[in-house]
């Protein structure tokens, strides 16, 4: 989506769409997506809300801009000499890295339409890899959608993913609840109380999730090919 690039001289900062979007992403990272409002951003940037409306018609327009910016951060580069599964791992790994840096904003990628050049380039690359993996156009589209949904859920649903003290309290309450279940009725839930309520090894969690996703895609390609 094209945005007006006029520089708004506020005496404190010069506003561009990029300035506002980066501030919105930072706010979402620290306080959650619900904290992102035009009024709050204006306060943080030291401007009036009207200064932001010059660049964004409303909050929906701002959220679309945040999604576009996330796509811009994803590296679409893959080694064309690699087998298609390795190319897919490279691209999805890059997507996961970016989503991990903006966990509160990640779910927007599955719920909002993105039509920026960056999003189109990423989608084109993903579909091309899947087509060369033997999927039909319809199948490639379905796989791409499920892959994006899986990555966003992997990030947003990570145990203990709430922010700050809320995260620690939520983890504690979840762990205590699971540990208090009758072990004769729920032995597996009781023994998994810690991994179900917190993530002790984030790197291992995300690596396993990506491996599982890729294994499923490759198995499907063999079955349908």
Automatic annotation (TrEMBL):
Pfam families: TetR_C_1 (PF02909), TetR_N (PF00440)
SUPFAM superfamilies on file: Homeodomain-like (SSF46689), Tetracyclin repressor-like, C-terminal domain (SSF48498)
UniProt DNA-binding residue ranges: 37-56
Domain HTH tetR-type: 14-74
GO biological process terms on file: negative regulation of DNA-templated transcription; response to antibiotic
PROSITE patterns, alphabetized: HTH_TETR_2
Parts forming coiled coils: none
Keywords carried by this UniProt record: DNA-binding, Repressor, Transcription, Transcription regulation
Keyword Ligase: no
GO molecular function annotations of the record: DNA-binding transcription factor activity; transcription cis-regulatory region binding
Protein name: TetR family transcriptional regulator
Origin organism lineage: Bacteria, Bacillati, Actinomycetota, Actinomycetes, Jiangellales
């Amino acid at each position: 989506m094209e945005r007006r690039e006029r520089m708004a001289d506020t005496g404190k900062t010069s506003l561009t769409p990029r300035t506002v979007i980066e501030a919105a992403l930072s706010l979402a990272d620290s306080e959650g997506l619900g904290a992102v409002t035009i009024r709050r951003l204006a306060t943080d940037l030291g401007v009036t809300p009207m200064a932001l409306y010059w660049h964004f018609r409303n909050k929906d327009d701002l959220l679309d801009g945040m999604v576009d910016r996330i796509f811009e951060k994803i590296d679409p580069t893959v080694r064309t000499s690699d087998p298609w599964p390795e190319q897919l791992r490279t691209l999805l790994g890059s997507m996961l890295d970016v989503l991990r840096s903006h966990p509160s904003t990640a779910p927007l990628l599955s719920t909002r339409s993105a039509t920026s050049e960056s999003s189109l380039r990423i989608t084109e690359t993903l579909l091309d890899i899947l087509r060369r993996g033997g999927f039909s156009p319809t199948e490639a589209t379905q796989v791409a959608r499920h892959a994006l949904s899986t990555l966003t859920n992997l990030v947003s649903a990570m145990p203990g993913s709430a922010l700050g003290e809320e995260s620690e309290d939520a983890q504690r309450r979840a762990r205590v609840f699971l540990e208090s279940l009758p072990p004769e009725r729920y032995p597996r839930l009781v023994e998994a109380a810690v991994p179900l309520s917190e993530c002790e090894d984030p790197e291992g969690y995300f690596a396993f999730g990506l491996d599982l996703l890729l294994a499923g895609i490759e198995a499907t390609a063999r079955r349908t090919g």
